[in-house]
Design brief:
Length: 144
Amino acid sequence: MSTTVDVFLKFNGSRRKLLRFLGRELQIAFGKGDTWLLGFINIEFCSRYDDPDYFRSRHLRGYNFVVGGTSYAWSAQFGTARHVDITIFDAIAQVIAVRLKTRTMITVLDWGVERRYRYIRPMKRNKYSAVIDEKTGKIPKGLF
């Protein structure tokens, strides 16, 4: 059984700049072969230019890149690994939204769940930048 989680993001820069950011800030280096995170999450990177059919849906028009992860639970030890995958990618979506000051959306197609984040700039009374959930307009209370 596998679970696929996608993080869609809007980035105005080039593909090379985004890959450099992911490698530098999140320590995710995409190479020629498969990229694995923690040994059981297969990570893929795609842009609108590479696969325009993936971005055909109406609610994906504003996004131009996707970082996807598929976890494979193949033994009793990794039976709950799919929940770790969703938590990790939810945190990645929030970090990307704050660091790049952009919009992100995480989707779990198997569960029919999607969550959108956007960056809000800090106010004078609050020096911290935050990410908010677009649906509720508030800071997310927790990860998935």
